[in-house]
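Researcher: Let's continue the batch. This sequence belongs to Adhesion G protein-coupled receptor F5, and it's 1383 residues. Same format as the previous ones, please.
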Amino acid sequence: MKSPKRTTLCFVIIAIYSSQATLSLNLESIVYHSLLHEHELMEEDPVRQKRAVAISSPAAQEFTVDVEISFENASFLEPIKAYLNNLSFPIQGNDTDLATDILSIEVSTVCRPTGNEIWCSCETGYEWPQESCLHNLTCQGHDGSSAGHHCSCLKGLPPKGPFCQLQGDIILRMSVRLNVGFQEDLKNSSSALYKSYKTDLETAFWKGYSILPGFKLVTVTGFRPGSVVVTYEITTTTTASPALMRKANEKVTQNLNQTYKMESSSYQVTYSNETKFSITPEIIFEGDTVTLMCENEVFSTNVSWTQGETGLDIQNSTEVSIYTSVLNNMTSVSRLIIHNITRGFMGEYICKLTLDIFEYASKRKVEVIPIQILASEATEVMCDNNPVSLHCCSEVNVNWSQIEWKQEGSISVPGNAEIDTDSGCSRYTLVANGTQCPSGSSGTTVVYTCEFISAHGARGRKDIEVTFMSVGDNSSHKGEVRESQRLVMEMSTVQSTTKNSLETSKAREQQAKLNITPDLISVSEGQSFFIKCISDMSNYDEMYWNTSAGTKIYKRFYTTRRYPDRAESVLTVKTSTREWNGTYHCVFRYKNLYRVMAKDVIVYPLPLESNIMVDPVEAAIPCHSSHHIRCCIEEDSDYRVIFQVGSSSFPAVKEVNEKQVCYKHHFVADSVSCPENVDVFCHFANAANNSVQSPSMKLNLVPGESITCQDPILGVGEPGKVIQKLCRFSNITRSRESPIGGIITYRCVGSQWQIERNDCISAPINALLQLAKALVKSPTQDEKLPSYLGNLSISTKQVKLEVDSFSGTLGAIINILDLFSTVPTQVNSEMMTHVLSTVNIILGKSALNTWKMSQQQKTNYSSQLLDSVERFSRVLRAEDSTISQPNVQMKSMVIKPGHPQSYRQSFIFLDSDLWGNVTINGCQLEHLQPDSFVVTVAFPTLKTILDRDVPGQNFANSLVMTTTVSRSITTPFRILMTFKNNHPLGGIPQCVFWNFDLANHTGGWDSSGCYVKEVTEDSVSCSCEHLTSFSILMSPDSPDPDSLLKILLDIISYIGLCFSILSLAACLVVEAVVWKSVTKNRTSSMRHICIVNITASLLVADVWFIVAAAIHDHRFPLNETACVAATFFVHFFYLSVFFWMLTLGLMLFYRLVFILHDTSKSIQKTIAFSLGYGCPLVISIITVGATQPREVYMRKNACWLNWEDTKALLAFVIPALIIVVVNMTITVVVITKILRPSVGDKPSKQEKSSLFQVAKSIGVLTPLLGLTWGFGLATVFQGSNAVFHIVFTLLNAFQGLFILLFGCLWDQKVQEALLNKYSRSKWSSQHSKSTSIGSSTPVFSMSSPISRRFNNLFGKTGTYNVSTPETTSSSLENTSSAYSLLN
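Model: Same format as before. Here are the structure tokens for Adhesion G protein-coupled receptor F5:
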């Protein structure tokens, strides 16, 4: 006897009952007493027992009762199950209720503790219903759950039931093709041929499908043409996984006679009762928004919708939207939404999900009816304060969302509406008085409209005309009116026209027109394409792109811009893949109105260059021999492949090896000269005639006698030869299902190939790396990322030993994390757990040796990993989440509106003996946007790994703590951190952060914006003005800001600069005073022009130097921009000083060497200013243009040219040192010229002295300036002695004083001009005895004590009497002119 209605929960008790009393069940009379001696360990759930039903009829009835029993001691479970299974039925009731018999008791659901969770699973023959699997958490990795089908295990009991239910039969409708000719006898089931086919096929089917769980029966149902298509049905009690079904199909093929030629790839499976198809609403009116929902317990989004009458696939349009997603990682849910439905959408709809050979199909019929409204007929109303009622009723009574009354006319007479939801009617009562019907308005007609609005948007209306009559007008008609009010209202059925709401009507009036890229978009994989969609209106609420399946495109792929008269969106795909093949919709939404334009994209298969594997990567080939070369891909598509060797091309031979397809060529070395290096490429061309070139294969043709290493896989090689080989083509052990990746390097040592570097990637990680590379190009990135992160976490645990041994696998995992971190817009707690679980393994202490190997190979994995974790933490959306692993911990907090509490997090790593705290005051958090997330991640071992990238420094062992905020920070921000002090007695602590822009974007520690707040024996407290990854350094080379050396350098700099600026200003004043006296000839004029520009350039440079120091020390607003400007001008004007010195030297060289050549003053000035300012300007602009876009123009701790990252300082040092060398060379040439003049051009003793005087200025100033920056260059290097810092600071600060003394006051003409001006004004009486300037001895003359001191520097003493240059010969003229250049 079977129960007509069965619901199961833990125990299923079938009882027959014939009394009117309520069924009562006493478990103690059923269950063995010895198992229940501790009554408190078992309690009956009275709520569950309320399912027992009272019987109103004395006839025997059968019921199913669900009972739940809970145990505190799990050991009771198995004895009770055994006892219940051994009971014999029926069981008679007790003495008080003899009419109740228990027919059977079955255990359906068992819950067991697993870790910290309770896992509830179904017993044999039972399964969780689809609703329970969909709305509850399933057990991860439970063996009893078939992938993609009904779950058998849930985490905890569903709070509202139902529980496991008895499994019903599942019928699989299948088909397979036989590649034999179809005969008409196969249509006749009684023919011998039909029976022979049926017998043979069913025999093979039974042997193959008997391995399916719950298999019962298989029957051939018929044959149809198309070769021969066999249709058959399999009856099972449970669904089978795709892998198991494929295995069963293979067994069928193996057991069937080969003469049937069964096509193994033609199997198709259709499930008959696995799809839940629902339609909302049940009653559909014209104008409703209707949702057809299809649910399958299959992990797939490959769902299509078809309209049965037309057989055409339904695509997204303005009226129809399709959305498909996967819930709880196991249930596919597809929704077909029909907006503003009309009767044209009536008919049968088919929902079909395809997964491998499985097809899940279901169909439902959609009926659409108009809204029929019955309303009062036109009537007349007397304005005499008597109530009159208008009535409206819907013919079909549903739960109307709203019934509205409106009126339209020249007079306003409002009424009172009453709605009866049970009957679907509304009454509108009018009470008109004389004031509402003024004189002259009698007979006015007002239209009253009743409008019915459904819960899903449909609208139906009916108009009622009401004529208002004034009291006293047409009194004879008054009685007729009142009589008509007493008449029974006659109803008429009128089909109303469905209309949208007023808001949607207005929106429809301003509906946008869309235009989309008209050209056919047909590309091959790897190529780019874009689709432009233009709306002629810009006032839209939302714009997005989606696929034909309703999946929204990730926002990174398109940009949208508004213009005053239009809006446009451009979908741009830089690297197309096969996933982009399909139809794409440009959707503009305004309120509830959607405007959609579709565009088809055809993407032809073509392998990407990075996916083409070449063998060999590099190989040596003996001259006049041959070698096999190949290019392989992971797909079997119809490509045309040729090999190119130089200008020659050769066909390829295709070879298929499981999933790998290789194209081979037998390369013959006789075709080219020897020895030679040959580059070989293979070209793949597809059906669209697009091609891609593989990476090159480098073949080195070598003489055979020099070969010592030989290997059938690696090839041959000379001693010391280094080759690279793809790991999958090497002799490294690999998996057949998932080949290993990466490159392995070999070196020929003696007669053997030895591994020099192993960068191989384990099989599961290599597979994930390929998926990650494809994911960043996929239009559905967000959907795939959670499962990919979970797979990465699992795979990393599986290959932990390889992570601890091989840097290739480690690097691949970091590259995968880096690629994944660029995808999400938000990350939940589960995804972040997967990320940190992966990070925990690769940062384990056992992996530190692998990190050391990778850093010896100059990789940047540590900085890349840190950057990836920061990106994940910035998009984390999990309230107050905590994740703790041995090698990484994470804590987060969400900022609530109002006055947020302070952010305080602590991290303790006992194994590493490290701890740290992070604090952000509440007042700082108030400036953040509400619902922002603050996340801190701490690493105990990452510091050791990062420090290896910065050699030559002593670092503290401390935590690395990275803190991020999900929203951008627009106001000044301060974070406080405390680190454990592991070196209380050694080194100076320094608070630093990891700057990813340093060292050419490879990263490095930087102290900008951070300072030490407090140091104790146990801790170091830091305060920083920004957020990123922080730590502390202990470096003896980093001077303390409060140290004596730092203070001394600051004092020297500022005092020296003051003297320098005053000296330069004095020099300019002196030049202005004596200008007319010292610039009477061309060469003297040019010499003083150079001196004035040298002085002015150095003066401006010193001023900018002070500005730069003030910007950096005091951190003024906009300090970064101002610091860039200060650096540029200091660079430019310091260079100008040197280039004007070069101009001065070249002028001297020109006047002495090119004696007979004369150039005009204007040309000389043009050359001088071009060289003095033009060259520095070009160098400065190139320097800032090349480095500032990458933000490596300046140093991080000063407004001056960068050295650590780009060596931009060389743009100053190199030109300056070159000029020093050139000027010193010119000085030597000048002196040589004077000491050894040419024949007939020997100067007199007086001329020699003059020319020595000429060279003094340039000979003194050039070395001083060059020596200054020589010391400056020495201070750049790490660990430089403090003496270099002090000497450089002294020389640099007093350059102005040097120029005043040696460039200005040392000039005898300047001295004479000053003396003349000085003696004429005040002291003429004291010099009356002097007869000429030549006989006087002024304070600045060469015989004065001061001048003698300067001359002693050059080994010269005595008195110089300078007379006016003679002009008797060209030689003398030019020598004197050269002398004037520096005097």
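Researcher: Any comment?
Model: The longest strand covers residues 593-604.
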